[in-house]
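TL;DR need structure tokens for one chain.
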Amino acid sequence: MPRRLSPFPAPMLNRRRALQTGLAVAAVAGTLPRVPFAQGGEVNIYNWDTYIGPDTVDDFTAATGIRVRYDLYASSDEMFGKLRDGNPGYDVVFPSNDFVERMIVADMLVPLDHGRLSNFGNLAPRFQDPGFDPGRQFSIPYFWGTMGIGYRQSVASPDSWAVLMDSDEYAGRISLLNDKNLIQMALLYLGYSLNTTEQAHLDEAVELLIRAKPNVKAFAPDTGQDLLISGEVDLAMEWNGDILQVMEEDDDLAYVVPKEGGLLWEDDMAIPKGGPNPDAALEWINFILDAEVFGAIATYVRYPSPNEAAKAYIPEEDLENPSTYPPDAVLDKCETSIYKGEEVESLYETALTRVLAA
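>> reply
TL;DR here they are.
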């Protein structure tokens, strides 16, 4: 969901960080996996913005001979909307876990040929058989993480969603996300499930957020971390990886999952029906699953890895960072978003529209 680094180094990364990353990727490049059945061609990737290593695309082409067209989107809703009425030509997409289930129900995904995914065993066992896609028939995990609050430690020390939604203490210094996750975090703060199907609960969340609007500087499209590091806000509802990226540049910044809990998410790789290059799509997915390749990406984007073998190539300081790999006590307070059917999903979309339009 996230959240995420583009195919090119992001401007916010300092030279030290860029050099470290370049060395890590260079080390990988010398041992790039060769795909024996690669015959050139093209693969069309549709991924979240800021969510790949700086050299991953070029390394894939060097290893396989396959050219890459790499397009970006800002939300699962945007991706789903573009593919719902017919695939315009994408071979691999990166839906969040609830959208994987939604796309399976809508018959939008191609079953995966696990015989072509020799690196599947690199995944940690807990990621190999999720409830939303038993046996990983249609999806392969990419990254996972939490949603919480990024903040400036010299100004605030939040432990609750209340500072963003139910207080004027930081009026004008707050950014909130402008997608349905906003509604879900309000539900958690109110003590409800973020998957509730009760209209009364959604109405209460809408009313809470409308009351909070005068205190909000921006409803950001997954750019709260940029507002935070630029000094425009002091608190931002954001994805953990996005905040970890800017924490590299400013040691006054920190991240916390509020005491009410947060969203526990997973983004996945999947092959949409109608893509022109399904064989190349499988090669892309298997390449990403390579331990060294995935380790280099994880080191760069700073999201927790579902690839157990890749952890050998991720810095120990990242693996031991509770903001990246939260302890069980934090994860136990979090909830995973599930697909609730088109009728209920539309209720969440309507709730968000009511807040933004108020």
